[in-house]
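user:
I keep going back and forth on a fold encoding question. Separate attempts, laid side by side, tell us more than any discussion would. Would you put together a sequence-and-structure record for a protein of your own picking? Write it directly below this note and I will take it from there.

assistant:
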Amino acid sequence: MDTMRDRFAPVASRLLDEDPRLAVVLAAIGTDGFTGAARRHPGRVVDVGIREQLLVGAAAGLALTGLRPVVHTFASFLVERPFEQVKLDLGHQDVGAVLVSAAASFDWPAGGYTHMAPGDVALLDTLDGWTVHVPGHPDEAETLLRHAVAAGDDKVYVRLSLQSNGRAMPVDGERFRTVREGRSGVVVTVGPMLDAVLDATEGLDVTVLYATTVRPFDAPALRRATEAAGTDVVLVEPYLAGTSTAAASDALSDAPHRILGLGVGRRELRRYGQPEEHVAAHGLDARSLRERIGSFLGAAVRV
């Protein structure tokens, strides 16, 4: 199966052909995938070199002229390094762009901590007005990228990962999807964590909601799920643990509730190893998730 990032350049290239308003802005990374598109649209495929602050600044400039920029590099270089430009050039100037990341939390451990960005979504949460898509499969990534490009002049972040579920789910760029119903708690699983969560909760009497658009947070879906399953909620996110706990708590502010946020821990793992080892070290493999979810939900009465 191809990866989410494998889909990005072909889909973005087709969108360049279809939409004269679209521009792609790169910072050396990923340029090979746009060779043909750059020949067809030389003014709308821009490579600024290894200059990530300029990457976002140039995108904001293009947006000010009326174009819809799609901006791509590793998450750590797209959100963290040029955060001031994301905050001011896009946010303060009130212009939109589609930021499309790669490498996610720890997709390339050999690159070291400089190429890891488990805090990217939490960092964007400090700003107003961002839509955040976290696909769990290449097909979902393609759908959500098209949603993002078509979203007027909004500010959108599409978080791509090498981690992927075995099959795609229908996604609409807005709502959580119910994939399992139960009566003893709700588990909200984000993007590529779905397969592990379904394995972890097999035989447990819990509702599982699947989220690929996490901002805006689908509060109505969570409230509906808790009406039948109770207000014990577990969030399983492929980035910094607890990133969405405040959003979930706000959704349930009129009812007593408990929330457990699972995700990537804050401690830096300096033996970089392989992505699967990071998943296990952060307790995000199916076995660890079952122990942690079951303990929090009181073993979640079996179906």
